[in-house]
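Q: Start with the shorter request: fold the first protein.
A: Done. Sequence, then structure:
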Amino acid sequence: MVGTTVPAVELTPTGLVGDRTWAVRDQVRGGIRGAKILGGLMQLSARYASGEGATGGAVAIALPDGSTVSTDDPDVDARVSAAIDHEVVLESLRPADDLDHYRRGAAYHDDFMVELRSIFGREGDEPLPDLSAFPETIIEFESPPGTYYDVHPLMLMTTSALRSLETALPDSNVDVRRFRPSLVLDTGDADGHPEREWIGRHLRIGGAVVAIEGGCPRCVMVTRKIDDDVPQDRTILRHIVRDLGQDVGVYGTVVEPGPMATGDPVELLT
């Protein structure tokens, strides 16, 4: 689902405190699923019911019809299922040793390559990302056990990258929500996608240090409809695959946990 911004956050080895603490389980084919498969999830948004800056407790989910349902409500599963036209149940984060909770569900296609091309939204002879650089756990598990993130705990984007996308795609709504970054860094007047030059280096952000692991290959999620102002748009992914080597943003891991807030300085380390 689409998330919210917060003014300050604590960073731990598993990412931002309070981020990705709930998921939906597919009741048709099993497994934790996101908007790569259940695209309607991108038309829902979630925030902690206790208010801005909260990092725990019940989550309020805004549905496409304008209503809101809480994870505490007895009909939450039914209402979310109806909103995305697919039967699901909501589940909170489980311990890392509960391996069955994180194991992948049944495929939607008999042909594995068809499944991958559907997930990554690739057309014709467009290449698939090189998945060999990712942890082997993503083959067996929908997410690294103990987490609900895809590969690494953080995905960083820059204001320069967003501006570059807007310039290249003047007829598209390049809304930051399409890309679901953990952090957006203000890179001023820098051109293009400066975060790519940080791969293999560390960033100090506020009181934390982050290692930049590699580029983030983009999937079909960036094309999904969020609302009437942000409609389905496949041209965004075509540009990313054709002109940007499939990546937008970079993945990060946590070297030193600590606090960070809007306006904190960012320092590129060795």
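Q: Next, the second protein, separately.
A: Sequence, then structure:
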Amino acid sequence: MYKILTLNSISVQGLARLPREHYEVASEIGHPDAILVRSAKMHDMELPKSVLAIGRAGAGTNNIPVDRMSKLGIPVFNAPGANANAVKELVIGGMLLAARNLCQAWDFTRQLPGEGAELDKAVEAGKKKFVGFELPSRTLGVVGLGAIGVQVANAALSLGMRVIGFDPQITVERAWELSSGVEKARSMDELFSRADVISVHVPLMDATRALINEARIKLMPGTGVILNFARGEIADEAAVLAALDAGKLGAYICDFPTRRLMGNAKVIALPHLGASTEEAEINCAVMVADTVRGYLENGVIRHSVNFPDADLPRMDAHRVTVANANVPNMVGQISSAFGDAGLNIADLLNKSRGNLAYTIVDLDGAPPEKVLAAIRGIEGVLCVRDLGRPRA
């Protein structure tokens, strides 16, 4: 019986992927094998020693101490792409709000006094303040062509916009999904210099912090619009506000309100609505439940933010997995330990990602505990799991 600790409310449809005959799921549970989380902050949490995996029912993992988990050999899973449509629709909605000044116009209208002819006159007199622009005449620059960025780029093309994108690390899978009509920018600065509207879809890290800054905003050809539905810190807030006040930016649309942003009439700050749809919550929960289950039962890794993907089809063999530092001769030492015990390796898969590596070994017999202990004692080994034979 596997025990799953939930730190937030997780969609029932997601939890249903964990069969009750094999899983106990609760918000308070001792010695959990895995933790499922959405927004709860885990950096100061004392992690039970029994934890083998952490699953985030969403894309970002800033609330999880990923580096600490890596040192313990614990994979952190997320749900990339599960909320992509929800965020894409919000981005397109934000672009329309900015293009037609809809929020400002609505606020103006709701405060108008009078009725009948008096109201009609006020409406006609005031509407000229909210003249906007049409999307087909504009160029959208998309920074980051992952699951969300690709959908945003494709949707903007369908609305008649010219679209340019920048992502030096685009995957083959995403490249296949991206419309051939999206033009490639050779650099971030080139993208800013060619785009009327910019939408960012990158994770927050040192390299992306303040990606939107004074120098890049100045490169924009006219009075631009910036959409930030990624992370607040990706934009230099002071630079954005200065550009708005100077007329270099016409609007800043984001999902991360701060008191300073909320005080500017050209800012539309939404309450972190990116993945706030029923469909997205279900999709994220289903994906992360499936990946955590695959890891617990079969040692398979998919959609991990710290360990490599590793999927070895299960056969009628005894499975052992090893998470370790990515150093030379690790596979040789693991294989020798099994060979010295007279165990034949039926199949083996070794994958690496940065400083970490992961090995799945299928054996023709059960390894004695002393063999597993010997492998745990190899310098650089972080975690060894004995999964036994597949469940009937």
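Q: Describe the second briefly.
A: The chain has three domains: 1-82+278-307, 84-269, 308-392. The chain has a mean pLDDT of 95.
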